[in-house]
């Protein structure tokens, strides 16, 4: 294991039924492009091979709405459908393809996986300073989390072939933004070389 790997973790963002599967809340928008991209299988392989802690974030809404703030159209929409996002609702579950690599699951009610929870502090307490991001959607939670983590002082790499979006153009534009606003996007193979010196 490289010195970098000893201080690294994977943030696996929104690999849950509501986002990935046709029956989920965002299924009409995301299920088909996710399936077409093959991203689930690539991300599951990367999570299994990374050899560092994997932290899964879930967007959930507990009774009383937790930290949800209805200040965007997105948050208004999920707030109106909050029963589908209860922590024990079928749609809130991680998809079965990734559950074998789920080390730690963290819930929140924000677009950034590091907002509205103590995950950033937990990572820092564990000596983590480098994050590799996977998830859906590239231009939403992935980009928001990557920018947030960078501002918090983490070195951030989005794993470009382990993320996708509803729209190919939005996905490509988001990756271009992230190449500028983070430590740079990497393929899964490039990330594994960075972590272990080999793919």
From TrEMBL:
Pfam families in the cross-refs: Isochorismatase
Residues covered by the Isochorismatase-like domain: 9-190
CDD domains: cysteine_hydrolases
Domain of life of the native organism: Bacteria
Entries under InterPro entries matching the protein: Isochorismatase-like_dom (IPR000868), Isochorismatase-like_hydrls (IPR050272), Isochorismatase-like_sf (IPR036380)
GO molecular function: hydrolase activity
Keywords, in A-Z order: Hydrolase
Protein name: Nicotinamidase-related amidase
Gene source species: Saccharothrix saharensis
């Amino acid at each position: 294991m490289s010195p970098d790997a000893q201080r690294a973790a994977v943030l696996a963002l929104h690999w849950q039924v509501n986002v990935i599967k046709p029956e989920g809340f965002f299924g009409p928008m995301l299920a088909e492009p996710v399936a077409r991209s093959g991203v689930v299988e690539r991300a599951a392989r990367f999570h299994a091979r990374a050899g560092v802690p994997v932290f899964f974030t879930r967007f959930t809404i507990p009774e009383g709405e937790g930290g949800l703030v209805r200040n965007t159209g997105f948050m208004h929409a999920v707030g109106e459908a909050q029963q589908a996002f209860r922590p024990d609702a079928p749609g809130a579950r991680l998809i079965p393809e990734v559950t074998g690599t789920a080390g730690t699951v963290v819930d929140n009610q924000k677009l950034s996986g590091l907002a509205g929870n103590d995950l950033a502090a937990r990572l820092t307490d564990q000596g983590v300073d480098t994050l590799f991001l996977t998830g859906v959607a590239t231009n939403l939670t992935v980009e928001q989390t990557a920018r947030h983590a960078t501002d918090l002082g983490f070195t951030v790499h989005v794993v470009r072939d382990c993320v996708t979006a509803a729209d190919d153009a939005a996905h490509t534009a988001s990756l271009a933004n992230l190449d500028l606003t983070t430590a740079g996007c990497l393929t899964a193979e490039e990330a594994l070389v960075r972590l272990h010196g080999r793919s």
